[in-house]
Amino acid sequence: LEAVLNGLTDRSLATIDDLKTLVNDVTKAQGVKKGLVMKSMRAALMGALQGPDLMESWLILRQRGFDVPRLKEALALS
């Protein structure tokens, strides 16, 4: 999650494809499976492990400025 958060502050991400690229870059750089990152992101952003499409939901949260605070809060809890 920390690597994703760093990627969010380093880039201008305005589309679902931008967010997917960020997740792919993080999984490759960290050497972790994409599923693990996606589950962690869903839990941090949505507060649940199941729900609507994560990328679409994340984009809406990003457009409203809610994604970074939620990720920071999740990191503080861990």
Relative strand content: under 5%
Report, as a whole number of angstroms, the end-to-end distance.
Answer: 10 Å
The CATH architecture designation is Orthogonal Bundle
Count of all domains: 1
Number of helices: 5
Number of strands: 0
Query: What is the mean predicted local confidence, pLDDT?
Result: 94
Structural class by secondary-structure content = mainly alpha
Which CATH class?
A: Mainly Alpha
What is the helical fraction, as a range of percent? over 70%
Shape designation:
globular
Name the helix and strand elements from N-terminus to C-terminus, one letter apiece: HHHHH
Q: The biggest beta sheet, please?
A: none
Q: Identify low-pLDDT runs.
A: none
CATH topology name: Arc Repressor Mutant, subunit A
Radius of gyration: 11 Å
